[in-house]
Model the fold of this input.
Amino acid sequence: MNDRLYRQAEALVGQGALAEAEAALDAVLAEAADHVPALRLRGKLHLHLGRPDPARALLERAAALAPGDAEIAFEAGVAALGRNAWDDAVILLRRGLAVAPAHAGILFNLAWALRRLGDAAEAARLLRALLDRQPGHAAAWFNLGNALSESGRFDEAASAFRQAAAAGWSPVESLAGLGLALLRGGDADAARALAGDLAGRDPDHPASRGLALEVALADGDEPRTLALAEAILRRTPNDAGALLRRAQVARKGADPATIRRELAAAAAPAVPAEVLAEWADAARAAGLPEAAAAAELAAERAPRSPPVLSVLGKIQALAGRWHDAQATFRRCLDLVPGNWGMHSNYLFTSLHDGALSPEEVFRRHVAYGEAWEGRFPQPLATVDDPAPDRVLRVGYVSPDFCEHAVAFFVEHLLAGRDRAGFEVFCYHLPRRRDAVTERLRALADHWREIDGPDPVAAALETIRRDRIDILVDLAGHSSGNLLPVFAAKAAPVQMTMIGYPATTGLKRMDYRIAAGGGVFRMGEPRWHTERLLTLKSGLPFTPPENAPEVAVPPFLAAGHVTFGSVNKYSKVTPEVRAAWGRILAAVPGARLLLVCPGGDSAPIRDGVRAAFAASGAPAERVDPVGEGTFAYWLGLFARIDVCLDPFPYRGGTSTLLSEWMGCPVVTMGDHRSFDEIGRRGCASVEEYVAAAVALAADGSALALRRAGIRAHRMVALHQRRTRAAWELDALYRMAWRRLVSARSVSGA
Done:
């Protein structure tokens, strides 16, 4: 009976009587729920009629009942693709591929699903396997071009798009894909020419408009980018590329009201999650409390999108949610293991987490080094001239040759160096250029801007051409770093300093130059892959020229002591809040002023106070304030009597600036490293709390300290400036001679 009804249903489908066929199949399944052919055909009809949900349920049931049937697995996978259920599609299609490894439909659709999940490299491998069997498969060539572009293999992608056109794929789409590959591979002129050709051939084609949009963005022509995006959106309101580019341009300089409006519009279900994440990041930069919820919503919609997860992780980290941020960056890193910036984000958040042991933090950094050094099996550096006393070519690598904390330290090192013994090259990743950039540029012998879609390759080629002897990293795992260059061993001697308070994890980084400070618990040699060297005189900190005079102690007018934290709020962990709560409880009437993103909005202030209350602190005496300009930040010291340094990730530049503005600082770490005039280093939380309470208890001593700190620091800084540059030169010369000596002994 069931088989007869099923055959009738098949005949009805052939006749186009789909409603009658559905009724017959429903009758079969009412009698025999596990009738595989009926499940399959019923599911295919649902799919044909635009009903992906019931189609997927029936086809997945059929696939489970017939695990050896590749066709059913293929059809179930396609149904899952129709619902954007990428993970389910991969499982089903892999099941079919195991049975039929040459199945063209499975290879093609599995590659499609993997691209959606961020695994473009595996997608490219599958598409190549398909093309080995069917070299004329035009759609496979086109999708291979997209997968290779997403993997950063732009030359191969360009070749694939040319093959797609030759095989008969849409000429406009093939040429637009080729143009994008050329653009991202650094050939902007060729991409611009192709965009012009397509504009003349078919200006209204979505691919033509998309290439024109990307070229305008790459040219930095923001008005044209915005105009092109708006033109595309008038025709196709949900075009993902145009929405994203519009957001990236429109967010610059947008006021809070505009950001809120755009954020609300981006929350609509039809808008791509990446666009919502872009506006969430804009809200984060503007200090709006809606940022976190918007980023979390974007991640719910696209849980495997690296750009979405990157924004969420950044927002979590800036809120001090280190455990959550680590998990988010770890998820993102699993999706894009070749993204060194994401790997550094993961390590940076680990460094802030006081719950992690030094062993675990060190293990994670070592894993980074092994992963990235493994990508360069043979070191790239060679020693052209081993003479121990010749002029050495020293290269500094940084994204922060601008108004940034790094500039406070590096300027005098460049200015005071021995110009007869060292030739200096600066390699700048120009995230920002300003007056400080020009000042530093004038101090270098050679200035190199590292730009383009592949800054690692560009830096390696430039450094090789410059024949650098000693290469110095100034970023560590902070934002914008180029540590893969050091993983490749781009220079015979490699060092890191200033930008990061812990190890890089690279065994090919020969030395780390320290000058006191660093992360509590992570300053010991055993937690470093590098050999530690010390600038005994310390770094030559340069105070800002526009710093205001030291203000009168605010407790004299307020009648109570005000503690303060001017550090990034992300460093304020629950352990720090608990310690600061103990200090407030022990000093009657004392208040705590702290800077945090959005601290000038009521929801953020309430959230900060609630977090302090949860840590046992008297939250009513906590005064959050918002972020602002550097001048605004310096002005806050007139409202603070004693600065409290967070831990385990201590302040660096902020501590020195606090002292320059007359505020004594209570900090955690080796107390033997610090003097007693402006800073009190403590070896335990108990000592830290006691030191803060003692400072607040003696108003006369507090006023004297405030009056004397800057004068003392001026003397110390002058002495340091005269010594630090030549001391650093001596370390460079020692490291070079050590290398030459080792080569001589080994016979290299």
